[in-house]
Amino acid sequence: MAKKKNKKVAPKRLTPDEYPIHIENRLRERKQMRCPIPQRHLLRTQEQLEGIRKSAEINTGVLDLVAKEIKIGMSTLDIDKLVSEYTFDHGAIPAPLNYEGFPKSCCTSINEVVCHGIPSSKIILKEGDIVNVDISTILNGYFSDASRMFMMGDVSEEKRKLVQVTKECLEIGIEVAQPWARIGDIGAAIQKHAEANGYGVVRELTGHGVGIKFHESPEVLHYGRANTGMLIVPGMTFTIEPMINMGTADITEDPLDGWTIRTRDLKPSAQWEHMLLITEDGNEILTK
Ligand code: MF3
Ligand code: CO
């Protein structure tokens, strides 16, 4: 007899156009308990989800390309060229380009740069660097967003640990991001893990709703108290993107370019980012 095939059950993906009464009741119940619930437009319809999913696929393709090509001696502008070429070739637009005046197609943030580093021909990747490449894509009006860390050659043990613990912070955040939990649960779990390792959690920059706009509700803090903040509901799409500093949590903004964020003590910082869809029975990483 043939071995019984282990049939994969697709995860349930409920959207507001098809919410059954038990979900509606649950929402109403929590609202009455004074828990902030997301506005309806933040719960994606099936059609929106399809568009967001396709955008995220391209976004992941960009990151995979960067992972394949990134190497010592390259400039961060070389990375930017790869990003914009691949994105336009796939009929999409890099979301950072001209976003509030941002001049390039992605963010490249090395060592003490926390985020929003501007790609430049003058910034050359060198041995021992840790680099975050943050990619965001618009396809047919749908937005996606994710970032990864890359380590250049021989990287010090303490930087490796920072990169690893920051990745764990993202993973822990994803585990906590369950339907009917609250947004504050995510930050509380991340902060606990980062601080247990002696690291600082950046306060000023947050994860965010994403999909129909680049940055929408909810604001996803990477620190804070459990059982606070917005209710997490099936159909929401948002990022988790902890920025974790080896030293102080404090940051500065470059007064010359108005973008580059650095640690105040100039010690290294790391960041990993994924975009999630909340489902009825858990979540799905859209940027895998
Ligand atoms: N990709 C960043 C985020 O994770 C936003 C970058 S905005 C830019 O939210 F203008 F700096 F690109
Ligand atoms: Co983001």
Commentary on this structure:
The chain is α+β, with helices and mostly antiparallel strands and 288 residues long. The protein has a single domain, classed as Alpha-Beta Complex (Creatine Amidinohydrolase), CATH 3.90.230. The chain contains 5 helices and 15 strands. Strands 1, 2, 4 and 5 form a 4-stranded antiparallel sheet that branches. It has a 3-stranded antiparallel sheet with strand order 3-12-11, with no helix packed on it. A hairpin with a 2-residue loop joins β14 (274-279) and β15 (282-285). α4 (157-176) packs antiparallel against α5. The longest helix has 24 residues, at 46-69. 45% of the residues are buried. The model has no long low-confidence stretch (mean pLDDT 95). 2-amino-4-trifluoromethylsulfanyl-butyric acid (MF3) binds next to β4.
| Secondary structure category | alpha+beta
SSE string: HHHEEEEEHHEEEEEEEEEE
Q: Would you identify the CATH H-level superfamily?
A: Creatinase/methionine aminopeptidase superfamily
Mean pLDDT: 95
Task: List low-pLDDT spans.
Answer: none
Strand content: 15-25%
Most strands sheet:
4 strands, antiparallel
CATH class: Alpha Beta
- What are the bound molecules? 2-amino-4-trifluoromethylsulfanyl-butyric acid, cobalt (II) ion
Topology-level CATH name: Creatine Amidinohydrolase
| Percent in helix | 25-40%
Q: Tell me, briefly, the overall form.
A: globular
Per CATH, the architecture is: Alpha-Beta Complex
- Counted up, domains total 1
How many β-strands, per DSSP?
A: 15
Ends apart, CA distance between termini: 37 Å
Nearest-angstrom radius of gyration? 19 Å
Number of helices: 5
